[in-house]
Amino acid sequence: MGRILETELYQPVKTFLTDQGYEVKAEVGAADIVACRGEEDPVIVELKTGFTLGLFHQAIARLSVTDAVYIAVARGPGRRFQSALKNNLKLARRLGLGLITVRLSDGLVEVHVDPTPYAPRKSKQRKDRLLKEFARRVGDPNTGGSTRVTLVTAYRQDAMRCADHLNANGPSRGAEVARVTGVARATRMMADDHYGWFERVERGIYGLTPKGEASVAERQQDAD
Prior knowledge:
The chain has two domains: 7-113, Trna Endonuclease, Chain: A, domain 1 (3-Layer(aba) Sandwich); 138-223, Winged helix-like DNA-binding domain superfamily/Winged helix DNA-binding domain (Arc Repressor Mutant, subunit A), CATH 1.10.10. It is 44% helix and 21% strand. A six-stranded mixed beta sheet has the order 1-2-3-4-5-6, sandwiched between helices. It has eight helices and nine strands. The radius of gyration is 29 Å and the shape is elongated. By secondary structure, it is an alpha+beta fold.
């Protein structure tokens, strides 16, 4: 398949709009497509062969002319395009833009969303979870923008305190670990053992695994 040109999207989109009673003209001012119908506000469509940040920048600039602004891209095959469509559809909604795809093999034009003002729904559950994690985390152990590194969460900090206690005192009862460290969920945390640091020595008593000992030693070395 050869390289797609933006001009290949024009005729299918023009036909689609013309069939709805619009008069359509290309390259009017800075807009790729302008469509007018009676006394209605004009419709502007910006064309691109695929999703780009520049496409959204262009469309946002056109919102100073009319609220009826669409982006139109060539529809691609496979899951990769479907994933890109899903993500960019969310972005278009949040920006108040419409989104159109054009299947060049047969000229099929599909409107996935019309431009409407977007008011995001807030999730109280997510907000509460965010603030709870913020309040429980000790200090600021991470660096903003970090990727491919193990982030220190409040849960991990609690696990570290439990591991440090076991390292210093040997196998201990969960209730004792909770009392000394202040980690109320110590017994449950050591039993769940998400990090592979803890092992049950006997009923209600937990110790460190070799991995847990190595983790404590590594942190102590970094602190020196």
